[in-house]
Amino acid sequence: MLEATGLSAWYGEAQALHEVDVRVGEGEVVTLVGRNGAGKTTLVRCLIGLHRQVSGAVSFLDRDVTRMPAHQRARAGMGWVQDDRGIYASLTVEENLLLPPTVSGRAWTLKQVYEAFPELAGRRKAGGTTLSGGEQQMLAIARALRTGACLLLMDEPSEGLAPVVVARIREIIRQIKATGVGILLIEQNVTFAATVADRHYLLSQGRIVETLDNSDFRRREGELLKHLGI
Ligand SMILES: Nc1ncnc2c1ncn2[C@@H]1O[C@H](COP(=O)(O)OP(=O)(O)OP(=O)(O)O)[C@@H](O)[C@H]1O
Predict the structure, then answer these.
(1) What is the whole-number distance in angstroms between the Cα of residue 123 and the centre of ligand 1?
(2) InterPro entries from the entry (predicted)?
(3) 24 contacts 18 by C-beta, under 8 angstroms
(4) pTM, entire model
(5) Which of 36, 155, 186, 228 for mutating ligand 1's site (highest number of atoms within 8 Å of CB)?
(6) What domains are there in the chain, each with its CATH number?
(7) Which residues partner with 210 through β-bridges?
(8) What tens digit of pLDDT does each residue of 44-83 get?
(9) Whether the Cβ atoms of residue 26 and residue 195 lie closer than 8 Å to each other
(10) What is the position in ligand 1's atom list of the atom closest to the CA of 45?
(11) pLDDT tens per residue, range 143-202
C-alpha cells in the first residue's frame, strides 16, 4: 500500500537520507530501526509529506503522492501517531476522539474504539493529559483509527512505558494489523520490534543497510543490539 523509492532528503546542504527504498503492505507491520540520528524520523516525515526538501518517489494505494501535501496524504488514509502523542489537554478523552475528520468508510466508531480500548472507555470524561502515558498512547492510536486511516505510522509507541503497558500496546498493534491496516513503526526497542513486526529496515547514516524478515531479526537480536548500540 505504501512504496517509497530512491528517497533522499536534505536539511539545507546536509543530506539526511540517501536513496532509501521502503514498502509496507496491507496488514503488514514494519519497523525502522537505527541509532539516534540514523534518519528514522526524517524518513517518516518524508512519507507523510512533512519534509519537503526531498527527491525520489512515494506511492500510496497505487497513487503517486510524491507532490501531495501532508493534509491530503492524511485524507488519503495515512495516519500519523506522533511520539508526543498530540493529545489536546483541554479536551476530554471522548472530545479528543470526536475531533478527527473521517477519511474513509473504515473509520472506527466510538463503540469500536471503546470495545478495543476498555481503558479509554473507563476514562472517557477525563481530561486528555490526566491520562497515564499508556492511556495517552492508546488515545493517540485510537484517534488515528477514528479517521479510517489504512496505514498508521507510529513514532516509538513503546517509549517510556512500563513492560505491562508495552505488552498491551503490542496486543493492540496485532489487533489493528488483523484488520488489514498497514503499520510502520519507528522503534528503538529491538525486543519490542522483534515481537510485533513482520519485517525490519535497519537505518544507518541515512541509508537502509539491511532489510530483515522477523525470523532473521530475532536470530540476530543480540548482535543487532550490540552493533547498533540501541
Ligand atoms: N531540523 C533539522 N535540521 C538539521 N538537521 C536535522 C534536523 N532534524 C534532523 N536533522 C539531522 O538529520 C539526521 C537524521 O535525523 P533524524 O531525526 O531523522 O534521525 P532519527 O533516526 O529519527 O533519530 P532520533 O531517534 O534521535 O529521532 C541527523 O543527522 C540529524 O542531525
Answers:
(1) 36
(2) AAA+_ATPase, ABC_transporter-like_ATP-bd, ABC_transporter-like_CS, BCAA_Transport_ATP-bd_LivF, P-loop_NTPase
(3) no
(4) 0.93
(5) 36
(6) 2-228 (3.40.50.300)
(7) 202
(8) 999 999 999 999 999 999 999 999 999 999 999 999 998 6
(9) no
(10) 18
(11) 999 999 999 999 999 888 889 999 999 999 999 999 999 999 999 888 899 999 999 999
